[in-house]
Amino acid sequence: MANIQSNIKRNLQSKERNLLVHSQLSTMKTFIKKAQKSKDQKDLAIAFSYIDSALSKGIIKQNKADRLKSRLSIFVKKASAAEEKTVKKTVRKTSTSTAKKGTKKVATKKAKK
Q: Is the dihedral of CA 98, 101, 106, 111 positive or negative?
């Protein structure tokens, strides 16, 4: 432990800053994970704002912020596209199952194309 007053003060400042930085990083990571889970544009915008605030405070660098935003937006786009495909498949299945027997063959041929 330091025995000079300026070193003691510097250690205290360092500990306080360390706690602040780690809490802000943790919050940013939490919102990134929420955006990945929900796959919603609102959550994506919130995660982007936390990334930008961490960048402006000097917690992360520009390249890391750009990389996080890029990967997150790609992930959300892929996930939302996959959800749309599953929704379309369920709509097709329900429409073919409710069709009459004579029209059922026509509906399955169209679905294959």
A: positive
> Measured between alpha carbons, how far is 79 from 83 in angstroms, rounded to an integer?
6
44-99 confidence digits (pLDDT tens): 999 999 999 999 999 999 999 999 999 999 998 888 787 777 777 777 766 665 55
Residue 16 tokens read as 């306080």
| Percentages (nearest 5) of helix, strand, coil residues in the chain | 90, 0, 10
- CB neighbourhood size of 99 (10 A): 14
- The tokens for 29 are 């990571």
CB atoms within 10 A of CB 11: 12
User: Model-level pTM?
Assistant: 0.68
* 46 to 26, 49, 56, 90: CA distances (angstroms): 14, 5, 15, 31
| CA-to-CA separations, 80 to 41, 70, 84, in angstroms, rounded | 10, 16, 6
